[in-house]
Amino acid sequence: MLQSEKRSLVRFLFIYLSSTLLLFLLATFIFYDFQKQHIINTQNSQLHEEAVHISEGLRQLSSTFSNPLIYPQKEPFSSAVYNLDKSYIFGSFHPSSIFWDKAYYQKANKLFYIHQLYPYYLGVAHIVVSKEINQKPIDDLFNISLLFLCIAGAFFTILGIFLGKLFIAPMKESIEKMNRFIEDTTHEFNTPISTILTNIELIDTFYESEAKTELKRIEVASKTLSRLYEDLSFLKLNHDYHRKVVSLNISKLLKERVEYFKTLIEVKKLTLIKEIEQNIYLTIDKNDAIRLIDNLLSNAIKYNNKEGNLTIHLNNKRLSITDTGIGIQKEDIKLIHTRFKRVNQSEGGFGIGLDIVGQVVKCYNFKFKINSIYKQHTEVIITW
Predict the structure, then answer these.
(1) Residue 350 in this model has a pLDDT that exceeds 50
(2) Which of 196, 182, 147, 200 is nearest to 32 (CA)?
């Protein structure tokens, strides 16, 4: 799956799953809160039943005056009786504070119920009953709710991936068609471009020609096509490309690539400033290094002003290429790495050069920075 397809799928899944799971989380929370309150209400009703049981026992005690008096209570309930003035009389516990304005209330992990007696028995006007909350059904409810969320999350994730693939299927088909077109086109480009360049070199080497200017133009056009062919091939084969990473003399290679672009530099009458330290080695695949350098040089030449300066600096920490051309506006610098993005529509190209540079830089964990002032200069820096 291509990066663009992955990004689209991830964005779709994020929006779909976040909205769906948020809805289910809200529904589960409401269900859990409702069921938890139902469990608490059930346990509160047990307190009420115990209070009625105690009041019935007190009534019987007041009518029989049996001796000894036995306080009617049972486990796991705790209870206490209070007079009309809400003063403590007797009980199996003595709470430090009671919320007399509430019939039912919860304090820490205990439930309380205040039952009022009328008529009064044995001077008792209020019965306070308490018990610890039975946490087991609440824990079971929480576990069931959590399990439901996990199952729903897994189900909707699978469904989201399926729907996402259906969603990106037209884009994937279009990209595959474009890739097949690029592959077929680049295959057809290779032979005629190689033939043109070879014959230009032969003519220039063995024959004196009056059409030197015309031959240079043909050479420039052919090298432009050749570089385009290499870039398109890289975009097509990048994922399957076998890299042979070696310790490469980048100083020597840089000079060779500058020589390759010599004709283009001369046609634009650029002043070439080379600050290349000798014998700088870099661990990189040679073809990747060529693509990196060629795209930077090509852009620096293409977007430079006629009779401008082209400065190439290389040391053991970085490579920088600076032109005195059209520059890049600040808001476009963040977008310039995007494939097919062209901030200047007046110049040729497909907007793939810096995308390739970005892929190579990412592959080797290099750092890529662009400094530019619009209509003044652009400096591209690769550090390692």
Answers:
(1) no
(2) 147
Q: Which domains does the chain have, with CATH numbers?
A: 3-137 (no CATH), 243-383 (3.30.565.10)
DSSP state of 241: P
Instruction: State the DSSP code for 92.
Output: S
| Alpha carbons 333 and 153: distance in angstroms, whole number | 39
Report angle CA 130, 136, 142 to the nearest 5 degrees. Answer: 120
**Token duo for residue 144:** 């069931």
**Residue 244's pLDDT is what?**
84
- The pLDDT, as a whole number, for residue 252 is 92
Query: Is the full-model pTM beyond 0.70?
Result: no
Q: What's the distance, CA 97 to chain centroid?
A: 53
pLDDT-derived band at 348 (thresholds 50, 70, 90) equals very low
Q: Residue 103 carries which side chain, given as an amino acid letter?
A: A
- The encoded tokens of residue 186 equal 């680049």
Measured distance CA(2)–CA(7) in Å, rounded: 9
3-state secondary structure of 115: strand
Contact by Cβ (8 Å): 222, 200:
yes
Are the C-beta atoms of 148 and 102 separated by less than 8 Å? no
Is residue 123 within 8 Å of 87, Cβ to Cβ? no
Distance (Å) of CA 311 to CA 161, 253, 270, 295: 49, 16, 10, 15
